[in-house]
Amino acid sequence: MDDKTQPTDAQTLKQFIRELARKNRVAQKNKDPLSRDICAKFVALPAYASAKTVMWYVDAGSEVRTRHTLPDALTHGKRVVVPWCVVETNELELFLLEDMSELVEGAYKILEPKEELRNLPAKKVQPEELDLVMVPGTAFDLRGGRMGQGKGYYDRLLARARPDAPLVAIGFDCQIFEEIPVAAHDVFMDQVLTEVRTITGKGRGAA
Predict the structure, then answer these.
(1) What is the predicted pLDDT for the residue at 2?
(2) Gap between the Cα atoms of 76 and 93, Å rounded
């Protein structure tokens, strides 16, 4: 990024970075193999080995693709949880995924749980049950700062996760910036994984 072209006020800068990160992500080549590598790094984490209940996200658009790795994750002997968006409330709910056939294309063309399964008591999971959380994002920085789509879905969800459940973002390296503007409600990641590096973030203890 050319510093001379950067806006100076935080809100305009945030939008500038969000748009640039999206362009970078769309232009990223070899998304499938790089996504597999990034997901493999996630699965290799010690926190993954010790976790019993793990939240994955289901990729959409140009995000790091998890759908290739999710079928294998279902064989790891863990509870695999995926979020889905309740359009009416702009909230994320959590679903216990046991087979890929339980997913269909839903809001925003994202694979989501079939409607008839969503409210089954055995399929509902609370954020407090998560031992490890995979977090998507549009842009990240070297402190573990995260920028999402701007709707706050994940901020509200992550606020309910247990303090001892690591928040691990995954993204392509083209989504990493030195520093992005953050607001008081923004949550810092414990780690950010890309195809070429692992960034240790401030985590939720950050001021």
Answers:
(1) 44
(2) 23
Per-position DSSP letters for 133-200, written without gaps between them: EEE--SEEETTS-EE-SSS-HHHHHHTTS-TTS-EEEE--GGGEES-----TT----SEEE-SS-EEE
Least Cα distance to 85 among 105, 64, 63, 62 occurs for 105
Kind of pairing between the strands at 198-200 and 191-193: antiparallel
Q: How far apart are CA 19 and CA 182, in angstroms?
A: 16
Contact status, residue 17 vs residue 9, Cβ threshold 8 Å: no
Q: How far apart are CA 140 and CA 53, in angstroms?
A: 25
The CA distances from residue 50 to 27, 103, 156, 157, 171, in Å, are 35, 26, 25, 22, 23
Handedness of CA 147, 148, 151, 155 (dihedral sign): negative
Which mean pLDDT values do the consecutive 10-residue runs of the chain (207 residues) have?
A: 57 90 96 97 98 96 95 98 87 96 83 94 97 97 90 87 96 96 85 97 75
The pLDDT of residue 4: 46
Put simply, whether the predicted model's pTM sits higher than 0.70 gets the answer: yes
Sign of the dihedral through C-alpha 142, 145, 150, 151? positive
